[in-house]
């Protein structure tokens, strides 16, 4: 059997690709890409000439079966998406599942993901977090989802597009109340913007000006739900009280 490599690619800044990712993309027999034209630009930038085939959401099952055949024949294949880590709100899970079911070795490479960068910059207390990817675009479904997440005791992270950001923040404010929230826009890009504020301020900001770019929104749990150390002061006092020094 060949190996299926899962290879994260930059989410904006082309410097954000690991040495290992570059080597694997060079060495494999084939790269399965969400959009071959998009990935071709990255490969040209890196001077890589490996053959590309397309693997996109609408054809995941059909393409997955074809790629599985190639893996079974012994070909090594790298899976990439347009940006970030494949199979994280991106195509990939069908192929990965098929590979598991057929005993194909799977090697996931660590690398860029908008979720992890945003979460690391949130400053929110983290014994865990809940990642929902994109919230539904239909208002009714989105509100239903938010209601189901209201009592979650962990920060909740969403991916969002510029034309839906106001809708998400409006519904979240109404359903959650005015919680502390992180706005992470255009991470790693020229107009990167990171703002820790509250839902009311961020909703206002989104409503005032037509937004551009890509967003990660992370909402803190409600006060009663929050895990130990809701405020920094509380946490510092706790350490003082519990320290032997
Ligand atoms: N697989 C990707 C990852 O690992 O981050 C996510 C792909 S998903 C189709 C695209 C969404 O990810 C965007 O709509 C946005 O919510 C988020 N995203 C991707 N790049 C981003 C960036 N540079 N800054 C902020 N959010 C980003």
Explain what the structure shows.
With 245 residues, the protein is α/β, with parallel strands linked by helices. 38% of the residues lie in helices and 18% in strands. The protein contains nine helices and ten strands. It has helices at residues 19-27, 36-46, 60-72, 93-101, 114-120, 139-149, 165-176, 199-208, 232-242; strands spanning 4-6, 30-33, 51-54, 77-80, 106-108, 130-134, 156-160, 180-185, 193-198, 215-219. The protein has a five-stranded parallel β-sheet with strand order 3-2-4-1-5, sandwiched between helices. The protein has a five-stranded mixed β-sheet with strand order 6-7-10-8-9. It is elongated and about 55 Å long. It starts with a strand and ends with a helix. The model has no long low-confidence stretch (mean pLDDT 93). Bound molecules: S-adenosylmethionine.
- Described by its quaternary structure, the protein is single chain
Overall spatial form: elongated
Structural class: alpha/beta
Q: How are the strands of the largest sheet arranged?
A: 3-2-4-1-5
Average predicted local confidence, pLDDT = 93
Distance between the termini: 57 Å
Most strands sheet: 5 strands, parallel
- Rg estimate, integer Å: 21 Å
Strand and helix order = EHEHEHEHEHEHEHEEHEH
**Compounds present?**
S-adenosylmethionine
Unreliably modeled segments: none
Our count of helices gives 9
The percent range for strand residues is 15-25%
């Amino acid at each position: 059997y060949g190996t299926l490599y899962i290879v994260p690619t930059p989410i904006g800044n082309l410097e954000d690709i690991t040495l290992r990712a570059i080597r694997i993309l060079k060495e494999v027999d084939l790269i399965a890409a969400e959009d071959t034209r998009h990935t071709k630009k990255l490969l040209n930038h890196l001077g890589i000439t490996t053959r590309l085939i397309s693997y996109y959401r609408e054809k995941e099952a059909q393409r997955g079966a074809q790629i599985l055949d190639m893996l079974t024949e012994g070909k090594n294949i790298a899976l990439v998406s347009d940006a970030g880590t494949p199979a994280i709100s991106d195509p990939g899970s069908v192929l990965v599942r098929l590979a598991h079911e057929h005993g194909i070795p799977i090697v996931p490479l660590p690398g860029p993901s908008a979720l992890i960068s945003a979460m690391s910059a949130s400053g929110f207390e983290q014994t865990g977090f809940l990642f929902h990817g994109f919230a539904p675009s239909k208002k009714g479904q989105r509100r239903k989802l938010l209601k189901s997440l209201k009592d979650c005791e962990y920060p909740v992270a969403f991916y969002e597009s510029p034309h839906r950001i106001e809708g998400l923040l409006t519904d979240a404010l109404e359903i959650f109340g005015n919680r502390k929230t992180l706005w992470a826009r255009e991470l790693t890009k020229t107009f990167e913007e990171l703002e820790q504020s509250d839902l009311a301020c961020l909703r206002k900001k989104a409503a005032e000006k037509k937004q551009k770019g890509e967003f990660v929104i992370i909402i803190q749990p409600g006060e009663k739900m929050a895990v130990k150390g809701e405020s920094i002061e509380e946490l510092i006092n706790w350490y003082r009280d519990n320290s032997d020094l």
